[in-house]
Structures are given as structure tokens and as C-alpha cells.
TrEMBL record:
It comes from the Bacteria. The keyword rRNA processing does not apply. SMART domains: MR_MLE. One of its GO terms (molecular function) is glucarate dehydratase activity. It comes from Streptomyces humidus. It is an enzyme of class 4 (lyase). Keywords: Lyase, Magnesium, Metal-binding. Its EC number is 4.2.1.40. Residues 178-272 form the Mandelate racemase/muconate lactonizing enzyme C-terminal domain. PANTHER family: D-GALACTONATE DEHYDRATASE-RELATED, GLUCARATE DEHYDRATASE. Substrate binds at H29, T108, Y153, K198, D228, P229, N230, N276, H327, S328, N329, H356, R410. Pathway: Carbohydrate acid metabolism; D-glucarate degradation; 2,5-dioxopentanoate from D-glucarate: step 1/2. This is glucarate dehydratase. The active site is at K200, H327.
């Protein structure tokens, strides 16, 4: 008998997960970050899970979205985009301008909607895979590799969140200069076997970050290195950095903000440029590719609208001879599993993907995903191959319920103001 794929129940659980004091150009991560966990149940009692950003603006869209799902089938994946169009969006919450408050490029209503779609799409694929006895990668056409490589995501950071701030502790220690960045990289390598390293920049004046990259290159000869200041530099600064350390870099990620500035940089250097900030929607591709502004697009299945859209993006990139890899923001194991499934199906994946996962001490899964030799093995179990730990989910949800609202929106500048009361998100270019 064929399975009944009808969706009978959808559950949304906003949570707060511990996050270390990682520094970026806007400020510092808050001690807890909001995520949203989506669960879908079919008439046969099969469940599927998805994960996405959990700030209120996502929740406000996810609720009416969930209400429209019941009665549809988990295989109706294209319908998710129709539902997204139906869900009313208060555009005043978003900006069509470059949002310097965001590290993921322009924030539009469309992008918010797609970030919500992605969690439902992943949950549907998980349930569909379980119903059919197939892994998610098989539903995407099948894996072309058995393991997906990730890079160590190095951050300047404090040892602890500011005194008096409720937070979970970790044992990583501070990293505020080249020697401690190298030490952090060593631990990433020891713990997870990573062989490629990305440093989040835009935190210190460029010369200090240049020194950190040089120290990494000396400590790990031959290992691919990247530096990502999130658009904090002017075109001239970007070109100076490219000239000084370009030879050590696999690529420079978003040195300058926006396609015109990236195009100017790209025109005057041979160092490949990657982005998760100026190409974040299909609409942004034409200008960026026509101007040869980027050589690698870092997809994020959340804001690109899911795993199937990620494959479509990869196909467009392949058509234009542009590389593709993956961006990451603070995320848990459901997202890592989804990233791994889709990445396993993309033919021309020549760069290790990014993942924040090693920084997350908490998860909602019964078993954490593991990096071996810097890679995550592609699961062949039905669906995503992960299992929700309901007690952990409840615990993290209670933390969200108990919060007075201050942590329900990710705000790196607000977190920085706790340590530096006068802090405002620097205008870009900062240097
Ligand atoms: O987690 O601080 C961070 C990152 O800066 C993140 O917000 C970015 O979206 O990792 C991202 C990037 O590659 O730009
Ligand atoms: Mg980036």
C-alpha cells in the first residue's frame, strides 16, 4: 500500500541555543541565538524536521505558513513557494536597501519568506524520505560523494561573554591576536580534522588580520585559507590586502560591500572573490555575473529557499563558470544534515563548505553530527538521518519562553554594547 503523505500536523518550536562570544564587524554574538525548529507529521505518523533562523520576523511568517500546510502532501514541494506568496508580509519590517545590520546581504521580504520555506522544505523532504525509505540526497537525484568537506570557521573571540551576562561557558579561550588564532586553528584540526581554514575578519584593522593569515599560512603550509571581513573594507583596502596576502588565499570573501565595489576589486586583482553578501537571491545574479564581481557564490540553503533551490543556484553558477560552496550562520544539526545532503549532490563543489556547528555546544538531536578528517559522512538512512531529542528541544524552548525578549532577535551590536556601551555598528567601509 502506498504511504499516505498528507500533512496532518505542523509544530513550530522557537528555541534559544548557546553561542560563544564570537566577534564580527558588527559586534559580538549574543550568549544565546534564536533558531526555529519545524516538525511535520503525516497521516501515517511519519515526522520530518527542519530548522531555520528563529528571530520574530521569521516566526511571524512561519506561523501562517504552517497553518496553510495541513491537508497538503509532503511531496508537494513546489506548492511551498505558492504558500509563501500567499503569506502576507509586512514589508515595513524589511528593507530593500543594504542592511548594514545584516551579515547576509540585503534583507528583503522575499528573502525572509524563502528562509521560512527552507525549513518546511527540509522537513517535507525528511518526512518524504522516511515514507519512501530513501535518504534526502536520493530525493535530490543522488549523492555524488560520500562525505562533504567543511572548513574550520575561525573567529576572533573573547574567552567569555561579558561579566554578569548569563551564558554557557566553553573551553576555547580568547583569540585576539595571530598566535591565538593559530592556536584555535590547531584545536579545530585536532578535534575535527579540518584542513582548510576560514578566518572571520572585519574585526581588527586589516594589518592585524593580514598578520593572522600570514601566521596561519606559516603554521599550516599548503592548507587552503580564506579571510572574510563581511564587506568592512573600501575598494583600496581590499586591493591592498589582496596584494599583500592574495598568494596565501584560496579566496577573499566579501572584502567590499555590494556588487559594484566587489566588481571594482575583482577587476584589479587575480585573487578570487567569494560572496554570501552580494549574491544572495536569484535576482542579484545577473548584475554580479555580468560584471564578473564574484568567482565563488556561497549558498545558504536557508535564504536561497531550500535544497532544491540550492541545486538550481549551483546549476546557474556552473553555466557561468562561477564556483559554488556554502555559507553558514549559527545553526544546529538539522541544518548541518540538510547542508550535507544537498552538498553531496552538487557536482562541482571545489571548496570546503562553511559551518558554525563546532561552535554550538548544544543541539536538538539525540546524536550530534561528527566531523571526521574535516568531513561529514553523507547519511544513507531514510530522510535526513537525524533524530530529534524532545527533552533537549523542550529545554531550549523553555529558555526561549523564559527570555524577556532581549535575546529573541539576534543583535550582535546590542551584545557588544554590554561590553562597550558606546558601540554602534560601524558604517561600511570601516577601513
Ligand atoms: O556568525 O558572525 C557570524 C558571521 O559573520 C555570520 O553572521 C555571517 O553570515 O558567517 C557568515 C559569513 O560568512 O559572512
Ligand atoms: Mg561571509
Amino acid at each position: 500500500m502506498s504511504p499516505d503523505l498528507t500533512i496532518t500536523d505542523v509544530r513550530l518550536t522557537p528555541i534559544l541555543v548557546a553561542d560563544p562570544p564570537l566577534l564580527n564587524t558588527q559586534g559580538v554574538h549574543q550568549p544565546y541565538t534564536p533558531r526555529l525548529i519545524v516538525e511535520i507529521r503525516t497521516a501515517d505518523g511519519i515526522t520530518g524536521v527542519g530548522e531555520t533562523y528563529g528571530d520574530t520576523k521569521y516566526l511571524e511568517l512561519a506561523r501562517p505558513f504552517a497553518a496553510r500546510l495541513t491537508g497538503r502532501r509532503v511531496s508537494d514541494l513546489n506548492a511551498l513557494f505558492t504558500i509563501a506568496d500567499e503569506v502576507s508580509v509586512d514589508d515595513s519590517r524589511t528593507s530593500s536597501q543594504v542592511d548594514v545590520g545584516g551579515l547576509r546581504g540585503v534583507q528583503t521580504a522575499d528573502k525572509l519568506r524563502l528562509s521560512v520555506v527552507s525549513a518546511f522544505e527540509v522537513a517535507c523532504l525528511d518526512a518524504l524520505g522516511k515514507a519512501l525509505g530513501l535518504p534526502v540526497h536520493a530525493l535530490l537525484g543522488g549523492k555524488v560523494r560520500d562525505a562533504v568537506e567543511y572548513s574550520a570557521y575561525l573567529f576572533y573571540r573573547w574567552a567569555d561573554h561579558p561579566e554578569g551576562v548569563r551564558a554557557e561557558k566553553d573551553d576555547w579561550g580568547a583569540a585576539l591576536d595571530p598566535a591565538s588564532v593559530v592556536e584555535q586553528a590547531r584545536r579545530f584540526k585536532e578535534r575535527h580534522g579540518f584542513t582548510s581554514f576560514k578566518l572571520k575578519g572585519g574585526v581588527f584593522p586589516p594589518d592585524e588580520e593580514i598578520a593572522a593569515v600570514r601566521a596561519l599560512a606559516e603554521a599550516f603550509p599548503g592548507h587552503p585559507l580564506r579571510l572574510d571581513p563581511n564587506g568592512a573594507w573600501s575598494v583600496d583596502t581590499s586591493l591592498r590586502v589582496a596584494q599583500e596576502i592574495g598568494g596565501l588565499l584560496e579566496y577573499l570573501e566579501d572584502p567590499a560591500l555590494g556588487t559594484p565595489a566587489m566588481a571594482e576589486v575583482a577587476a584589479r586583482t587575480d585573487v578570487p572573490l567569494a560572496t554570501n553578501m552580494c549574491v544572495t537571491t536569484f535576482a542579484e545574479i545577473k548584475e554580479a555575473f555580468a560584471r564578473d564581481a564574484v568567482q565563488v557564490v556561497l549558498s545558504d540553503h536557508h535564504y536561497w529557499g531550500g535544497l532544491r533551490n540550492t541545486r538550481e543556484l549551483a546549476a546557474v553558477c556552473r553555466t557561468f563558470g562561477v564556483g559554488v560552496s556554502m555559507h553558514s550562520n549559527t545553526h544546529l544539526g538539522i541544518s548541518l544534515a540538510a547542508m550535507t545532503h544537498v552538498a553531496s549532490t552538487v557536482p562541482d563543489l571545489h571548496h570546503a563548505c562553511d559551518s558554525h556547528y563546532p561552535w554550538q555546544s548544544e543541539d536538538v538531536l539525540t546524536e550530534r553530527l561528527v566531523f571526521r578528517d574535516g568531513k561529514v559522512a553523507v547519511s544513507d538512512a531514510p530522510g535526513l538521518g537525524v533524530e530529534l531529542d524532545r527533552d533537549r528541544l523542550d529545554f531550549l524552548h523553555r529558555r526561549w519562553q523564559d527570555d524577556d525578549g532581549a535575546l529573541r532577535e539576534r543583535d550582535d551590536a546590542a551584545a557588544m554594547r554590554v561590553a562597550e556601551p558606546g558601540w554602534v555598528t560601524p558604517s561600511v567601509p570601516r577601513w
